[in-house]
Amino acid sequence: MNPDLHATAEALDAADPLRPHRDLFVGARTPLVYFDGNSLGRPLAATVGRLERFVRDEWGGRLIRGWDESWMDLPFAIGDEIGRVALGAAPGQTVIGDSTTVMLYKLIRAAFDAQAARDPGRVEIVIGTDDFPTDRYIVEGIAAERGGRVHWIEVDRAEGVTTEQIAGAVGEKTAVVVVSHVAYRSAHLADARGITEVARAAGALTVWDLCHSAGAVPIHADRWGFDIAVGCTYKYLGGGPGSPAFAYVAHRHHETLVQPIPGWMGTADVFSMGPHHAPAAGMRRFLSGTPPILGMLAMEDTLALIGDVGIDAIREKSVELTTFALEVVDEELAPLGVHVASPADAAARGGHVTLGHPLMRQATAALWRHDVIPDYRDPEGLRIGLAPLSTSFTETLTGLLTVRDTLVRLTPTA
Ligand SMILES: Cc1ncc(COP(=O)(O)O)c(C=O)c1O
């Protein structure tokens, strides 16, 4: 092995301005290599105390009074904070709601219906063939439910949707375009501003899936003219397993979008218990039932950290981490037949890299047994997620060398 790689990793760690933040995370001082911060972020130590205090003092102490005192506002307060530190969104446009899947359904359907009401000829939803399953299934479901149809864009699995592809797909029949900012498989970083503009010029609304970009890649939702966006909070935003999604809806669409699950929490006067649903003004109208308060608490600590560090510094380290990882892959794994199924250009890549090899499924199971935790995505893809706030360069090198050794062990000798 190239001894320079160790020296490089150590030098990069020594020069890393984000290095001290790693120690704020639970478990970061153990030898475990965590390559899945793009799927479930590590918790911050501060969150342990926050959750305990909440159960004891707020839930246990305030009981139902907590709703009036602060919990009712939490989906909006935390939503605004996500908007501020991670989305480039002015207040009043971001809320914490249901799961990502449910939020996507509600908002894609609201967008489809608003478009159909404006122009019944707009019946198509544009989406890539390699988009995340939930996004594709929802789009198919809404098309079937509302008499629309899906316009599929054929997408290269090692790449992602390009602006040119979107330009070629949208037209006078397009109602909605659904795109992932960072592709879940390849980490391809879409041109969010360009795609939004192309879709708007064709009269379509765009719904962005920000799951793999929020907290890792700078987003300027307001400046780029986003219509609607939804994203997970348990990846780079530290919300914990199953924490609820955020949704962004630009001010200009609040009055025209009607979401399809009209529950009491989305009404103008929640406790009036009126005979019919009257949608609230602003982001409240996109809520349906009682907000999942416990699931929102953990992200407050991560959001504070992202706010302190700044998303640009996070992105800078993210690029350095993935660039270094690809250097190690080139020197140590490529000779074993490993190929990179992510964009080579750092500017077109999000926060993870995917490595292809026919033995990756078996390798993942073996790696987990050795406390190296990536995840696996068909076909033969090992996803290496490098969360900039909690991952070091030395950890990255150690993990990738373990991938190399595991593949060597698994490779049948002739
Ligand atoms: C890109 C993307 N979209 C949507 C989802 C669905 O999120 P949820 O399972 O929280 O509904 C995920 C989950 O990992 C995802 O990665």
Report the CATH superfamily of the largest domain.
Answer: Type I PLP-dependent aspartate aminotransferase-like (Major domain)
Total strands: 13
SSE order? HEHHHEHEHEHEHEEEHHHEEHEEEH
CATH architecture of the largest domain: 3-Layer(aba) Sandwich
Structure classification? alpha/beta
Number of helices: 13
User: Which regions have little confidence, pLDDT < 50, spanning 5+ residues?
Assistant: none
Fill in the CATH topology of the largest domain: Aspartate Aminotransferase, domain 2
The pLDDT mean sits at 97
Mass-distribution shape? globular
What is the CATH class of the largest domain? Alpha Beta
Main beta sheet: strand number and arrangement?
Answer: 7 strands, mixed
Short note summarizing the structure:
The chain has 414 residues and is α/β, with parallel strands linked by helices. The chain has helices at residues 3-15, 45-62, 65-69, 74-87, 100-118, 133-146, 163-169, 192-201, 293-297, 299-309, 311-333, 360-369, 393-410; strands spanning 33-34, 94-96, 124-128, 149-153, 174-180, 205-209, 228-231, 246-249, 339-340, 352-356, 372-373, 375-377, 381-385.
Structure description:
This protein is 40% helix and 13% strand. The protein has a seven-stranded mixed β-sheet with strand order 2-8-7-6-5-3-4, sandwiched between helices. It has a four-stranded antiparallel β-sheet with strand order 9-10-13-12, with helices on one face. The protein contains 13 helices and 13 strands. By secondary structure, the chain is α/β, with parallel strands linked by helices. The chain has helices spanning 3-15, 45-62, 65-69, 74-87, 100-118, 133-146, 163-169, 192-201, 293-297, 299-309, 311-333, 360-369, 393-410, and strands at 33-34, 94-96, 124-128, 149-153, 174-180, 205-209, 228-231, 246-249, 339-340, 352-356, 372-373, 375-377, 381-385. The radius of gyration is 22 Å and the shape is globular. 48% of the residues are buried. The protein folds into two domains: 3-45 and 310-409, Alpha-Beta Complex (Aspartate Aminotransferase, domain 1); 70-306, Aspartate Aminotransferase, domain 2 (3-Layer(aba) Sandwich). The longest helix has 23 residues, at 311-333. Pyridoxal-5'-phosphate binds at residues 99-101, 132, 134-135, 180, 184, 209, 211-212, 232.
